[in-house]
Design goal:
By secondary structure, this protein is mostly helical. It is 79% helix and 0% strand.
Length: 427
Amino acid sequence: TPSLMPYLVHLFFFVFIDVLGFSIVLPLLPYFSQEFGASPSVSGALLTCNALAQFITAPIIGRLSDKYGRRPLLLICVAGTFASFVIMTAASSIEVLFLSRILDGLLGGNVSLAQAYIADVTSESERSKGFGVLGSAFGLAFIFGPAMGAIMLSTYQSTRLPSAVAAVLSLINFVSIFMNLPESYRPPPASPAPSSIPPLPSHTLNHPWFFGWWLNAHFPVSVIASGLAPLFVMKFCYGVLFALFETTLGLYNIETLGLDAKQSNMTLVYVGVLFSLVQVTIRRSLNKSISNSNNTESRVIWQGFFVLALAQAAWPLARSWRTLLVVLTPFSLASGLLNTMISSALTKAAPPDAMGTVLGVSSSLGCVSRILAPITGAAAFDAIGSWAPCALGAVLASLVAHYSYTLSLVTTRPNEKINATHPTNKR
């Protein structure tokens, strides 16, 4: 709708610029760490510490946004991203480099807050459109970011220039939010029905078993009973499948197909283009069906996992670059649709006063998948063979497809009764 378009434009550029800065720096972290004599395992730990930090704090940031609003938390998180890139640019030791990645992870709620903002300003019938816009921005940034970083590194022979450019991009984002983006969240009217997410305990930071508290606070029995838990399972499994793909692709290209770096990079570009394209093409034809029938979203999700299973099973059969591109076509399209549909379904199932918390938990699960999947995929590749991670992904995708199809829980909406009595601030 015309009233929705300004928000979508602002959030598209916010996510694009935010992910662009991250994707410029990400492929160059191993080169940066080598300047300080870091081993490959230490370079990998740079990514792990960022994901672990975000795993811990993303639900807390989401919950605070449910209390204080999206805009102030967005400003704080983007300021943290800017500071982390400045620290990285000025880093004089590997310890300072770790500090920059941990800081970025601790305040890494940018994308989940943008998703919560979309949920605030869209109706349920428009929700998949909004998430499609964010997904396309994400995909496009991962197409251009690594290429920009590689060009800067090869042209200027400096690992610090990309992080400096990323810092400038973060500063642009901060100013844009401050000047142009209004607050989207207004607490819904008081409801006699309790929220399915408990209030944040006052003793959080002093709790001796912080990890145990995290599990108890964000996965209470009421959430499991509400129908959110199956969606969290699907979000986590989707993250594992995509992280397995990212881990396996480079190894498969080198060990099995013998592709050079240029061909491997072009493969990623091809996947990124399809991932983004499906967000704004096929998704449009689904919007009307989703608004008219709750079952459409459920059907798209289980069918998407089924396509992923077929693509993963066919992957080991690819013995040339062209055959690989054919196999990755359905994989990329299904991944793009699932990325949008699962997030959209989560926001529809979330209580109105806990949207940020739910998306924060979703972001944390994505962090866990990015930690576990690369380790598992690489170990299977080395110990068994190039086909093993693909087979693992095919089995997992098949199980999730069967799970979502059989239980039909992806369209459960625990807040439906609340919404009927207490409309929220949808525009």
